[in-house]
Amino acid sequence: MWKYLLEKEFKQFFRDPGLPKMALAFPVLMMLVFPFAVSMDIRNINLAVVDNCMSTGSARFMEKCTSSGYFRLVDLCHDPDEAMALMDANKVDAVITIMPDFDRQIGTGKGFPAGIKVNTVNGTKGSLGAQYILQCVRLYLSENGTGMQAAAAGIDISEKYYFNPTMDYKLFMIPALIVIAITMITAFLPSLNIVSEKEAGTIEQINVTPVSKTAFIVCKMIPYWVIAFFILTACLIIAWAVFGYVCRGNILWLYLFTVLDIIVMAGLGLLISNYSNNAQQAMFVIWFFAMVFMLMSGIFTPIASMPDWAQAITYVNPMRYYADAMRAIFLKGSTPVDLWYDAAGLAVLGTIAVTAAISSYRKSE
Amino acid sequence: METNAIEIHNLTKKFGDFTAVDDISFDVRKGEIFGFLGANGAGKTTAMRILCGLSRPTSGSGTVAGSDIWKEQEKIKKHIGYMSQRFSLYPDLTVRENIRLFGGIYGLRDREIREKTATMLEILGMEDAADKFCSDLPLGWKQKLSFCIAQIHSPQIIFLDEPTGGVDPETRRRFWELIYAQAENGTTIFVTTHYMDEAEYCDRVSIMVDGKIAALDAPSSLKDRFGAASMDEVFRTVAGRAEREDQ
Lengths: 365, 247
Fold this sequence. Notes:
The complex is a heterodimer of chains A (365) and B (247). Helices cover 67% and strands 7% of the residues of chain A. Chain A is built from 16 helices and 4 strands. Chain A has a 4-stranded mixed β-sheet, with helices on both faces. About 1% of the residues of chain A have low confidence. In chain A, strand 1, helix 4 and strand 2 form a beta-alpha-beta unit. Chain A has 365 residues and is α/β, with parallel strands linked by helices. In chain B, a hairpin with a 2-residue loop joins strand 4 and strand 5. In chain B, helix 3 crosses helix 4. Chain B has a domain of 169 residues: 3-Layer(aba) Sandwich (Rossmann fold). In chain B, 37% of the residues lie in helices and 26% in strands. Chain B is globular and about 50 Å long. The mean pLDDT of chain B is 90. At the A-B interface, helix 1 and helix 10 of A face helix 2 and helix 3 of B.
């Protein structure tokens, strides 16, 4: 019986006008487009400088900033109002005002006579921009300053970044993007597929046969599981071939956590289809879950910086555990022993989802 | 050996306050063609879905093909064929693939499926269309194919829910030839229809009105009882008493 059902599902999958193409396009988009698009590296901060000193010192400072690679000098203004107008027009993100006595004060070592204004409409960009400017100031002072500033700059904080030494955001996002792709494919596509059989009435023809519900559902999901592993493999290959990223840990563990995630998602997908009578309803529920899962998973924003109540919600988000595990394995080379917590989270959620799904699935009303 | 394919006692199905099927009782004998008539919304399809194990009754008892409608729904499903009002084969599978799928589901072996497919295509005269997608078939062909697939596993009873709706008269006649051929093999046929000429073909008919069975007998006896010349007249007399709104 299984053989015939599987045959049917695979035939239908490959005959679908969109699905096979999507399965191919997904990993490519995920690996070649999205890592650049979702990167939170802040570069090209537009900078305006109001140089009231016009000395070699101030010029050298400006050069320090622009050569850091983070800033793009948009304009040299003559008065602060002009610079402010540029910021209001959203043409610049930061304004540095250099005081007339810049050289002298640096020379005497009394302070750093420059003002910094940062546009923080985009908070991340603004605060990072300010950090970068301060870094440039520190750098400048350590080379040119005397006295107090030199001493202040001397308290050099030596930073060493582990696991992702170049702070490459792409490397950080790639495991997370795989997580998103696999969740979408394994939870939501099968659920839409089941609902569309409901709409077409074909599920009724199946329901009057002695087919067991497990056989029907599992056969429906198997093609998507195959696609999920195909996508995982393709993504890993692309990450290696294009970016040179290699998984630090054992690749088997990536697959293991993917299996755990797939179980949770299968249950969830089936649950959605059990309670939806048409594709529209299902789409809405799917959209809701997709949003919550992604935004509350720690993929884009760290969970630790969420308020307590939001952190509490993340505990029932399977994507939280899956994303955490995939990143840890990929970037740090963690093993399931280190990640028992994520494995347990997925196992508990999976048990709940699958039990709820099977008990709510009815062949008859 | 029992002589009844279906035995139903006091069957009721409620949806909230609405009683779709109201305390009906009837038997269907083995091998007969049983016409299940009624206006739209009279409760035919609901009753039929219960008999097929697609729906559970609110109360009442009964057996279909010797199995209990409460406890043995899955057992019933092995011994019945069902053809619904809507065409419900897979449109994105070919004729041959649909036959193969349902054959497989009912536990036929590959060799049996191949033989069945060949005979079926021959009966239907669809050899040339075997590799066409079902979505591309004309309605009449679809219905005949659905019927053949409903009896692929040689069930004891076949349920047909308005099998000839929207089909031209010639195709309808052919369709009934298929039904007769099947009935001659000893299969019980349980059919709902809106065509009263089709009702004349049945061994016995029941007429449902407002969820109840208002009349049940052989077409000739019914005509005698109501002094009517045709089943059409009988139906209008009986169903004319309906109080429910036509849906």
